[in-house]
Design goal:
By secondary structure, the protein is an alpha/beta fold. It has helices at 44-51, 77-81, 99-110, 116-129, 145-157, 175-192, 203-209, 227-232, 236-242, 249-261, and strands at residues 6-13, 21-28, 33-37, 59-64, 67-68, 84-87, 163-167, 195-200, 212-217, 220-225. The strands form 2 sheets. Strands 6-7-8-3-9-10 form a 6-stranded mixed beta sheet, with helices on both faces. The protein has a 4-stranded antiparallel beta sheet with strand order 2-1-4-5, covered by helices on one side.
C-alpha cells in the first residue's frame, strides 16, 4: 500500500447535481483514530458514504488502502471492502436474525468456503471481545441501545478490517454508556491496530477517542489537526463548534454594562 490508508483530495459532490461537499481534503495515517466533526447537515455523513464507495463524488480523488475505490470494477470493489469495517449509525442490525447470526452475516458473504464451525468460532470470538458472548442467542429486540452498538461493532470487526469507519457511534446513548463504548473502541484500536475514522457530532466522545480531527462546516473543511490545534484556532466557525455556549466578544463586553445598570 502506498500513501495513507484513507486519502481524499479536493472531494466535491453530494446528491444529484447538488454539492454538499466542496473541496474536502482528508488524510488518515495508519493506526490513527481520526474524527470527522460537524453539526447535522454539514456533510460528514456524505463524506463517509463517499469514502466507503456508496456515493460517487462529482470531483476529487479518494483512495482507500492505496486504491481508487470509485475507479475499481464491480468485481474488484468487494475485495477492497473486505478489508474495511463499517459500524452504521444506530447499529443497523437485522431484526429477524439473532446476535450471532448478525455477526456471522459478513463472514458468510465474504468467506463462504469456510466450515460453519470455523465461522461460528470467529463470530463468537468477536462477541467475546465486545463483552457479549453470552448474548449470542438473543434477538436485537432484547438488547439495550448500548448492547446493539457493541454487536454492530463485533460485526464490523469480524473480517479483521484494516480500517474501521464508525458513523455516530455514541448517538442515542446516555453519557455513561457512551463513555463505555468509547473505551471499547480505544481497546479495539490498540488490540487490532486498526485505523479508525469516526464521524460524529459528539465532541466529548471525539476528544476521548481521536488522535486528530477534521471539522466540516457547510461542506468545507474549517480546521484539521490535533484538538490542541483546533482549540487554538481563531476561526469563529471552529470556536462556535467547540464552545457553542461561549458568548461572542460583543456579548461579553455588554454583560458587565448591563449588570452595572441593574
Amino acid at each position: 500500500m502506498s500513501g495513507p490508508p484513507v486519502f481524499a483530495r479536493g472531494v466535491t459532490g453530494g446528491y444529484g447535481a447538488g454539492a454538499v461537499l466542496r473541496g474536502v481534503d482528508l488524510e488518515v495515517p495508519a493506526g490513527e483514530a481520526h474524527a470527522v466533526l460537524g453539526t447535522s447537515g454539514c456533510g460528514k455523513t456524505t463524506l463517509l458514504r463517499m469514502l466507503v464507495g456508496l456515493l460517487r463524488p462529482l470531483a476529487g480523488e479518494i483512495r482507500i488502502l492505496g486504491e481508487p475505490i470509485h475507479a475499481l470494477s464491480e468485481a474488484d470493489r468487494p475485495r477492497l471492502l473486505r478489508r474495511v469495517g463499517l459500524l452504521f449509525q444506530g447499529g443497523a442490525l437485522f431484526g429477524s436474525l439473532s446476535v450471532l447470526e448478525n455477526v456471522l452475516f459478513p463472514l458468510r458473504e465474504h468467506a463462504p468456503g469456510l466450515p460453519e464451525r470455523a465461522l461460528e468460532r470467529t463470530a463468537l470470538a468477536k462477541l467475546e471481545a465486545v463483552g457479549l458472548r453470552e448474548a449470542a442467542s438473543k434477538m436485537p429486540s432484547d438488547l439495550s441501545g448500548g448492547m446493539k452498538k457493541r454487536v454492530a461493532l463485533a460485526r464490523a470487526l469480524v473480517l479483521d478490517p484494516e480500517i474501521l469507519f464508525l458513523d455516530e457511534p455514541t448517538a442515542g446513548l446516555d453519557p455513561v454508556t457512551a463513555a463505555g463504548l468509547d473505551a471499547l473502541i480505544l481497546r479495539v484500536k490498540r488490540l487490532w491496530r486498526v485505523t479508525l475514522v469516526i464521524v460524529t457530532h459528539d465532541l466529548g466522545s471525539a476528544r476521548r477517542v481521536a488522535d486528530r480531527a477534521t471539522l466540516l462546516v457547510a461542506g468545507e473543511v474549517a480546521a484539521s489537526g490535533t484538538f490542541a490545534d483546533l482549540d487554538a484556532s481563531a476561526d469563529p466557525r471552529v470556536q462556535g463548534f467547540l464552545r457553542p455556549e461561549a458568548p461572542s466578544p460583543g456579548e461579553a463586553a455588554r454583560e458587565p454594562a448591563a449588570a452595572d445598570r441593574g
